[in-house]
Amino acid sequence: MSAVLSKSDQASLDAAGRTTPPVEGRGQRRRGRGVARWVVLAIAAVFALLMLAPLLLLVLNAFKSGADYSEHGPLALPTHFSVEAFQQYLSLVDYPRALVNSIVISGLVALLGTALALVTSYGIGIGRIRGRTWILAVFLLATMLPQESLIYPLFYGAQATGLFNTIWSVVIVFTVLQAAFGTYLLSSVMSTIPQSLLEAAALDGAGRFRILWSVVFPVLRPTLSVLVVFFFVWTWNEFYIPLILLSDQSVQTVPIALATLQGQNSINLTALNAGSLLSLLPTLVFFLIFQRTLSRGVTVGSVK
Predict the structure, then answer these.
(1) pTM of this prediction exceeds 0.70
(2) Domains defined for the chain, CATH in brackets
């Protein structure tokens, strides 16, 4: 075998030597990337602890007795875990009824608000009606109005229609308010749907409702699922309008029932923490159930 390399072999070896980095350099870069990942992970863990600190404090104080809380304060660990606060809260508040009311109201608003937003945004985003920009501006303005400015007409309107102290008064109000935001969002998304897709469906003989159900709805299904989750949680946490329109205890929601623990001169803090924890658990369960749907709806945005 000849020890002399040809010019072509020499060139290929030189090219390989120039393009292939040294083993030590690659190892240093890998170690650098590994250190950077650990630093990012540590920073994320610190932020996660800061965000979870109020929840952990809520859990600790919910399982304290009144004497333990008064003696050691809110930041100390419980001397022994007690369910006294939960028993006091359940004796003062009709939590099962309030829970059912909140689930019914939030569920109806989430479904009806999303459906109404889908229909209205279909006419604005795809129908290309005149004054589309001004209509969207009105919808956006409706979501920005403070609830205090709406409470007087809503109160007298509920009394005039006989819906005062019924869950339908809150359902109708929040369906319209949530649908206003949903219309603003969905109309922008619908404007990105290719016209060729809609024209192809129309050439196949599909009417407007058929196009909405068979073409537009499957494309927007991930976005609609996100709206359902958001509308449910937003409505669950609403306080001011339900407080005015639902004065009867039999139709009150969980946040209103929780507010009844705050007396004029004294507050049962352990029972308040227990009630806050019970009020928070349904939304956490709801998020865990629909976590995959929510993440899929946020990431999926392309037209197939």
Answers:
(1) yes
(2) 97-260 (1.10.3720.10)
